[in-house]
Amino acid sequence: MTEIFGIPLQAFAGQLLLGLVNGSFYAMLSLGLAVIFGLLGIVNFAHGALYMIGAYVAWFSMEKWGLGYWGALVLAPVIVGALGVVIERTLLKHLYKLDPLYGLLLTFGLALIAEGVFRDRFGVSGQQVSVPEALQGATNLGFMVLPNYRAWVVVASLTVCLGTWFLIEKTRLGATLRAGTENPALVQAFGINVPRMVMFTYAGGAALAALAGVLAAPVIQVTPLMGSNLIIVVFAVVVIGGMGSILGSILTGLMLGLVEGLTKVFYPEASNIVVFVIMVIVLVIRPAGLFGKEK
Fold this sequence. Notes:
Layout: E1 3-4, E2 7-8, H1 9-40, H2 47-64, H3 68-90, H4 100-122, E3 138-140, E4 145-147, H5 148-170, H6 172-182, H7 184-189, H8 194-216, H9 226-241, H10 246-266, H11 274-285
Antiparallel strand pairs: 1-2, 3-4
């Protein structure tokens, strides 16, 4: 049997795949955080809660409402995006001119409220979401067996991440969004409704979190704690990539997922802290992050 560094090839490739799947979730969640912070200046600690709510909408859609996985993939971002509109219009809009710490504290409180409500309603045991029939099974690649659903997660995540990056960085709409956050008075003078644009930006970031939750639901158990368990790692990813850097968040999320997977192969005891060790090293060498802009 072929080995890499003394480890069977199939086991090595399996850990790389697991790392790539985790990296895809890191990339999608950190992308939403980067969009919200980069364009609005809000450190959105409620992002993990929005991810969790998206997963619960998927569970309701598939197990209770009979809409199926593909219906959930559309419905969850719409519902959570609408929730984002409510949060932005009623709470966050009052904080834009204040220190970002106020936004962090507010969204942290919202995350605790959401987690408490769902824990009271559903407990902490978790709900199981089945893999859709079209994505069941696996493909034999010769050196390993690739589960079809995990391949779909990677492809869908990369498509959404790169599409969002292209929209914000390479289109006229993205240029208007960036201009509206840097000089809202000037953009408003051209007849563009900046508050509405900001509202939809936050809703879009929330919808990205919900989409990640739907993709994750068949892979892990849906629990009220799933967001809080992941959000700290995702914040570390954003810090390493550079706060507000969209491309940095995508690339760093994928890279750290792979690093985490390899660490589980060579030194499993360190797999839970390797991301934070990298964060410390990056902050010492380059405080703005790998892709962030030095002030």
